[in-house]
Amino acid sequence: MKITKLSIDRLSDLPGSIICHILSFLPTTKNTVATSILARRWRYLWSYVPNLIFDSDDENIDRVLLLHKLQCVDTFRFTVIDCNDHQFETRIKFAVDRNVKNLHINFYRQNSIRALPGCLFTCKTLVDLRLWNFSTFPSSCIFSVSCAVVCLPRLKILHLHYINGGYESLPDLLSGCPVLEELEIKLYCCFCSCKISSPTIKRLMINYFDVEPGYEHKGYYNLEINTPGLVYLKLVDISNQHIKSGPLTSLIEAYIIFQDYVDGDFLYSQSVMEFIDRIRNIRCLDLNLSECTETTQSVFLARTISFCNLIKLELTADCRFLPKMLECADNLEILILREVHEKNGGWMEPQQVPTCLSSRLRTIKFVPFLRRKHKFKAVRYLLKNGRVLEKIEIVYPHYLDSKTRNALIQIISSFQRGSSACELVAYPEFG
Question: Is-contact 76 100, C-beta < 8 A?
């Protein structure tokens, strides 16, 4: 359509509040400020946008904050690189004074910041606080505040990523967050005791990794969890953290990886089993035992477990664990088994058909399915005894040639099926 002199700028005719709302969807503040050259009316509209999101290479943060006019900031996100203590404190004070709701700070590894301003821990409007890469120091750390000065009455989300220390004061911080619902912690350092206690947390994500060579456990608990209202848990433990937990009766879903390297550590194995027993009321479980030592695996297989409410299981482990999990989950409806390299034996047929297989299990998925003898035996057994089975999915490696792929499907298709309604579906892993 030909544009005439009578055509108008429809966007500029919108109320300023609506334009600012539209600008708030731009990815960064740099993009927002760039709109100031569009027209005279747009020159200062960016300064009323509630989101301040800065790229790591943005050198105009302090100038933008000086010119920003809106008294309430929804989101303030920036990276600390070349910034002194005074500049950093000024930015935090700006956020607190402007009633910030979401504050996300990434500390570049070479920054010189040594502590967080006290006003951050008494911000009455803060809802979402996320910190990355804050360093630890002998005399000052992120949590070097007493519970008497922590008051974050509206904080619902707290993420602490790669913060190397100060976790002994975490209980004091959490005690000042009376409505906290989500906590995520990622740790490089695994040598300090971490106690997480909160009656309000519903989502908890913990990632432990990077064990120092030669580190030996001394029989104490490194991780203590007391979150009775927890609904979702993600726990990635690849550093042999001894775990202690209070009741988790509200837990519905969990993603758990145990990866230990010190064989013969019975205290660790015992703590793992005690923890798994705590999550027995769970409905959806993604469990990875592929990198556990023989000690932990043996303790697991010997222990009596019951998951009476479990309806969906994703299991990454060798086939020895499959009968065990089927026998302890009478109401299981969906099973996803992820392929691992078998270390010992493989599939062993249960002495009697598990209850879930004869009355509940409707979907089974193998990811990826490799042409191994024990795996064919497992599929044959499941197909034969799955009385209400509706679908079995075979996800084969994408590199299989057509001849091998067709032979695999033909073999499985020939197995006897206990359910006439069972459908066989096969497709490539990355298809």
Answer: yes
